[in-house]
Amino acid sequence: MLNLVCNIEIEQQPTKDYPNRSKKFTFDFVTEVEINSTWANLSDTGKIIVPQKLYFKDANGELYSWDGKNIGGGYNTDPIILRGDKIIIDLGYFYFDVEVNSYTTKTNRVFQGYVSAVLSNRPMEIQLMDNMWKLSQISAPNKQWKNYSLESMVKELLKGTDYDYNTNGSTSIITPPIITQNQTVAEVLEMLRKYYRVESWFRNNTLHSAFVTYFPNEAIKHNFKFQHNIVNNNLIYQRKDDLVIGVNVYSVQKFSTGTTKRGTPKKSTQRLAQFALWERGLLRFYNEKPLGFNGEIRTLNLYGTNKKELQTLAENNMYRILYDGFKGTFTTFGLPYVKHGDSVKLQDAIMPDRDGTYKVKGVRYLFGQGGFRQEITIDLRLDDIPIEKQNKGF
Prior knowledge:
Blueprint: E1 3-11, E2 24-27, E3 32-38, E4 45-50, E5 55-58, E6 63-65, E7 86-97, E8 102-119, E9 124-130, H1 132-135, E10 143-145, H2 150-157, E11 164-166, E12 178-180, H3 185-196, E13 199-203, E14 206-210, E15 221-225, E16 230-233, E17 236-238, E18 244-259, E19 265-279, E20 282-286, E21 296-301, H4 307-317, E22 325-333, E23 343-347, E24 356-368, E25 371-381, H5 387-392
Parallel strand pairs: 11-14, 15-23, 18-21
Antiparallel strand pairs: 1-2, 1-7, 2-5, 3-4, 3-24, 4-9, 5-6, 7-8, 8-9, 10-12, 13-14, 16-22, 17-22, 18-19, 19-20, 22-25, 23-24, 24-25
């Protein structure tokens, strides 16, 4: 039998109004936890819902309750919990492990970050954001980032923080140069995503910023069976030769066009666009959507300098959209623990010809009275992607 285990630690952070806040609290009961984790968003977000009369322990083992206490600030006394406090969430099970013939506790760290808001609901709701919350409070330098590689730019943006970084070894020069003015570090990372296809996200205290979304050296492979550990699913199996899909392929670039009379930088934006039509095994390109096309349309953001390169990049990246296999989500238990970027092999004893291995785009962790579940979103099928490409990241 699996018994739920929850360990939550909140570390107070001093502020200008409350400079003496420095306590740590832990508790092992919660009404609900929901965490949304994916590389497709700049940050992991979530919430926990706790009873108003919950008791918890400080670092010395002394019991506290926040019922009737200052929650969220606004009073003369130090608040027990406040926006900007650090929070760690470990979830898992206590169970009898037949392999070692004893009871064991298995937990995984599903969230590490900050309290982004405290809502005075009953029961109380605490909203969360990972370490990107901290970068949204830090100002980026006002400058032109000329002749900067992605790695050197990220290194400078994180200067003065405790965060490490991983750019997958990229030495690519950011071209055209970026100009930042009165922006936070998080806003600059969002700019890199929007205009240069650089995805950024945190894994614990390491910021990943790269032209790839999947780091091969970090992926763990998991096996799931439809008649075993897949609780339910919203998966659809499709064959690419049966598909009729329109793809808006575009690249947006910002570049400097000099300065104004006052000496401030002038920026211009160039947008290159093509409409790619995939119809029953054939890929054709148009300047715009053909008249009469009413089918499904998807968007493919690429980085190119002319339309010919844009077409080549589009063809090279169609494997993300077009493949024989499943698309959608499936739900499993809290173990094995799955992270975005991992690989999952889906097996079906009834229809084994549909077996395949997929990358995980995102995971929604749900924990509470209904148990511990992981809702996993798959992205693309690995079976037809050359191993050389997988080993480089993509």
